[in-house]
Amino acid sequence: MPDLLLELFSEEIPARMQAKAADDLRRLVTDKLVAEGLVYEGAKAFATPRRIALTVHGIPARQPDLKTERRGPKIGAPDAAVQGFLKATGLTSLEEAKIQRDPKGDFYIALIEKPGRDAIDVLAEILPVIIRTFPWPKSMRWGARSGKSGSLNWVRPLHAITATFGLETEEPDVVKFSVDGIEAGQTTYGHRFLAPAAISVRRFEDYEAKLLAAKVVLDPERRKDAILTDAKQLAFAQGFELVEDQNLLDEVAGLVEWPVVLMGSFEPEFLTTPAEVIRATIRNNQKCFVVRDPKTGKLANKFILIANIEATDGGKTIIGGNERVIRARLSDAKFFYETDLKTKLEDRLPKFEQIVFHEKLGTQAARIKRIERLAAEIAPLVDADGGKATRAAQLAKADLLTEVVGEFPEVQGLMGKYYALAQGEDASVAAACEEHYKPQGPADRVPTDPVSVAVALADKIDTLVGFWAIDEKPTGSKDPYALRRAALGVIRLIAENALRLSLMKVAASALAGLSVKPADAQKLPSDLLAFFADRLKVQLREQGARHDLVDAVFALGGQDDLLMIVRRVEALGKFLDSDDGKNLLAGTKRASNILSIEEKKDKRTFDGAPDAALYSLNEEKALARAIGEVKAEANSAVAKEDFAAAMSAMAKLRSPVDAFFDKVRVNDDDAKVRENRLKLLNEIRSATRAVADFSKIQD
User: pTM, whole model, 2 decimals?
Assistant: First the structure.
């Protein structure tokens, strides 16, 4: 079957837009093909700075013919209805229609055959529409072309469209269409400087090979691999090690079509500036990589740049230009750093009085005071020194007012640590200045130093309680204050450090420190706890665990010790993976279902202890004995926080529950016996609630 080659050739596309543009092109074209009945075999899209390209292979040469039936008026209907039916279906007379018999009467039926069109004609119709409506995040309209003003909105001026369609064994046809005066053809262009001449292409394999010969590596993944491999080899040859940076690699691969790796240097004196600042300066300003000494792990005074040209002088001019810019930028960074060191962190704090954190939550200074107080309260709960936690909370945000962080916001926290150490602060206090922001995502490291943990919890809980108090909760996909991330950070800090603390008490304490009080202040901690439960379910789901078990544990109420909830969920999950667990779950659900039906029917609940004198069958007596034993054993194990033992106790219910349902008819003819047996079923439900609400667990 034929293949499609499509290329949209333009001025330089911003690197950040290329990957999505390629994916959008693939999606838009293939979705439209399928909608037109042209089901393809495969598709792949590519992007370089000056083009997005698409190959779709295995497209049928022609649309399938469509046959549809259209129901018309009844036999004997008014002439106006008949004429309307004939006109709508294209029939010349009713003799061309079928008659369909129906209980409501006999109706005319038109058989409409719509012959399929050639795929190339369909493509000529859909491709210009896709190009004109392409979803660029930002686009532009440029000046006149061939005496006409341009009407196309595109990310950058579009210069050429390549569109061919045909079999591998034959010369492909050009898909005939034009957009804004640009005729589709089979001409593209190579590298802007190394091979700018026009290139005539036929199909994808030919296109990709000719571009490579014209110094254009079409596949962005291939460009990334080439950059990474060459950069590592160049660094190794000079006795260094590349500091890898995936985000930077993605970006520079979108800046070049023919990557050429070169190495430059800067003066050793700049290495007195923190390595992270040097790296941020070089990366942000020149999109270059840094290298380190593999023996010491420290940065070297070298950098690696990615050029888009094979220079005749071996790259000396390119290297020299980059060195000049980097030297100037590093000089600025060094000046900022040395200037910052002249002012102590605590001396910066008064400026926070003039900086509003949120109009309803006061200034940054007020927030820092709240975090100080909360960190001091949390400190003994996490075995942290209260004085150090208070000091760390006081200084943690101060680096936001430094010159370096103003220039490079991504090093906030880290610079706080450097400045704290430079002014002689305790190592734990300095570490907390950096680590109190962590973890910032599921892959981020969780602090373990108790001082860092105390301040990190105080920072995140103050944020959550504050925005809950002013009713700025996340809604749908909107979470402008990153409250979901903050909640997940609290969960990870507690779980991964095995911390025991009451979230509701800490939240209530944080609420007490706020100047603003919500109308339902008493309800806020429990509402926030429900939010933590939702975040915990998301985390467990991402880890492949049973998120429904969180509901089963939270449904017991009074659960705000996240560590115990996680441990109980883990034990419950292991239990339900066993045969005993699966069968007991089935039996418990059966008991709950019967109870629900009978309670609805009788409009009452079957609470209260069963009457042992009404037990007439051995299975009833055995189940009652087992429930009594299991209840006591499971409750005792839960009290000791030995959830594995509690689950083992629950397992003893499996056999008597199975035997009860095999031999006992619950809805006995004797009303008293029936009621007693329903109470016994309620006892099963009550016994299992020692560990979880089994009704919340999915089968």
Answer: 0.81
